[in-house]
Amino acid sequence: MPTRFPRFLATFVILLSASLAQAIDQEFSLDTSKWTEQPKTVNLAGEFNGWNMNATAMTDPDGDRVWTTTIKLDEGLYMYKFVIDAGSEDRRWINDPNADKELEAADGNGGNNSGILVGPDFRKLPEPKPDHINTDAVLFNRNDPTDFNLSPNGIRIRVRTQAGDVQGMKARWSIPTARAGSEISLSLLGKERGADIWGGMLDLPKYPTFDITIECWDGSAHLGTSQNAEFSGLSRTDVSRKFSGFQVDGTKANEFTTPAWAADAQWYQIFVERFRNGDTSNDPGDFEYERLVPWNGDWFSTLPGEAAGEENFYNGEGNVWKRRYGGDIAGMKEKLPYLKELGINALYLNPMFEAESMHKYDTADYRHIDDNFGARDSKRHPKQLGNRELYELDGTPVAPGYVQTDEPSTWKWTKSDLIFLDFIKAAHAQGMYVVIDGVFNHVGRASPFFMDVLEKGKKSKYADWFEITDWGDEKNWKPMDEPFEVHGMPGGIQWRAWDKDNGHLPAFKKNAETGLAQGPADHVNGITRRWLDPDNNPDTRDGIDGWRLDVAGDIPHPFWREWRKVVKGANPDAYINGEIWSEAQPWINAGDQFDAVMNYQFAYACVDFFVDQKLSTKPSEFVNRLVKLQYLYPMQATLVMQNLFDSHDTDRVASKMINPDRSHYDDQNRLQDNAAETGYESRKPTDEEWKKIIQMVAFQQTFVGAPMTYYGSEVGMWSPDDPSNRQPVPWDDRGPYQSGVGFNKKIFDEYKKWISIRNSMPVLRRGFFAPISADDSTGVVVFERSLGEDRAIVVVNRSNKAQSVKIDVPNGTYIDHAMSDSKLESDGSLTIKMPAWGVSVLTND
After folding, report:
1. Residue-range definition of the domain harbouring residue 182
2. pLDDT of 284-306, one tens digit each?
3. Are 112 and 61 contained in the same domain?
4. Which H or E run contains 575?
5. Distance between CA atoms of residues 48 and 70, nearest Å
6. What is the pTM of this model?
């Protein structure tokens, strides 16, 4: 039988109230008495301290090798781990061996986080009784944005009750003096660990202050308060302190705002080097570490100029790592009309700044756009990446010999910089927003600031910018033709890097109080202002529209709190999106750091449901996860989450469909390492697999949050993980390509169709999500998106068989937007004929 959720189509307004939850002392312990090697330190890291591995130290007070700490936590579920020897190179994160296994959750790195449930455990309650409400199991905290979220988008509510204990629930806002108010029935949205989840969304009242109350009932038993009996019509019996009415300051809805445009965003991620080569005059290929190859070359074959032999593809000569295809800004500009036709209105660009690699995550100079993306005026030199012919913002040349420093007032512009700013102007003219990658945790070894440290050692102005672990022999503090034949080796300077010790990505020094050390923090702030507002005039829209932050969790929270002020000061409408693979409440919910994150939690849920077969999530479990996704963050953040399936860090969604039941998301998908033993199919999808992929896209376009398409997925690209997920786009005028690869017009049209449906319907971009039914036997999920009076009902048939699906809806004419706007008549219900792997979107005409 399907799981059905009560639906309330009448439109009212909602809000709610409760007494403050009391923090509870919670002890954590780790017994290491039987360990062969004893840790020097043990720390506790989790959602409660922002996953800061140094914030909560544990002690061994009795000397019995049992490490403990006690912290105060409000009621709720928290993920955590223990960090062993946090300050050493041997640092490791481990689970709590004594934690409840049912509460574990994937950590996004191939393992699990432990979970601790603070407060009542619904799973252990006695069976509910008729005409009775277990008042101790009605949980709501108005200071928790998960339960009570006041935003410009409206008021969102969540209440938890014991499963099966409550029959119905209403919430109300009212202005007693004006005899004004409105109420709504809250929907039963889902279940979680023995609890029923009730919730809803209402418009924000146009009053500076208003009162909130809530009531629930089970038969003759009522719980709640009524400030205005004539308005409510409900009794005052069985009143609980939990639901005492409280007053709300409506002006606080603007304390945490996200850019309004980001809720309407249709994202498209571009890996610039592989998107489109529009200008061959800036092509790479000058240095040993880069080799220009034909755009349409067979990816897995030896290309012109490469060392022959399969052993040289990943290893040996490492052909695949040296390949350059010449993608650039001119190519992106050429394809702006194509992207507009697809329905794209927001671009996320992988790193644009000068760097040695093809991926540009090894920044050499944040001040300038890489000259392989823009223009080169002279032959490059390995120690002088890019041209240094400088210009004013209006294009006037700067006198030869001008010297830039780390001081922002000295920064000028290169031709490549001006070409990029012109691209931004062209994108804006097409109605698109442009967000670029901010790689602020580390730089590349070619950074002039890092090179200065290698040449001057402790005497360098930038000595405090980096995590130097050993200064080595002072005799080696000097300019060298080949510095890395000495530094990173015994006797040379040693450093911490993001990739590995003495690696290619030297890490900026961190500071517990400021997040980043002062030097790099000031530099990053200057860079942030430079690209958000090039002319230092916030009234002009001449810069980027926001940042995507690489490995954002590696920089402590204090920096991001101050950095948000810098961003919003330069452009109040800028979008801040962090790369956080786990649940990201510490970066989002206080409204003082990011607007959103790349929503890998969404990707996990979708792959588990749509892709996996033996390990697939049941429909009822899937909708419970969707409810949780909607409530993880304040609604203003949920609406602007970047909902993706794949990226430059994963295998493509088409290949995911071909390779189900991986141990977890983004695992066993790299041909050269983690898929070597288990195997990974790199073939083209079958027709049925394409149908399932398009079903995923349709769902992505109808769920809460802003969809993101990874470049080329819309034309049918498939591939394993890095580096194969970074192949060049098979444009029609760049072929012929290797067998089976090409521009798939049918897939493009399907993407375009579903993107158009979302773009044309505000309810799909800004509406509240509520499940209607989930049938574990047929694989059918039905849910609703609501925005004021508007409703859209979405039906998903995740099965290889056609299904007849009956939905109770008010009388009227309904349009199925997925079926060429076909019309259906309802006499209180509709029966939808759903094809295999089909999706329908219904609205009342």
Report:
1. 3-18+140-254
2. 988 889 999 999 999 999 999 99
3. yes
4. strand 575-578
5. 12
6. 0.90
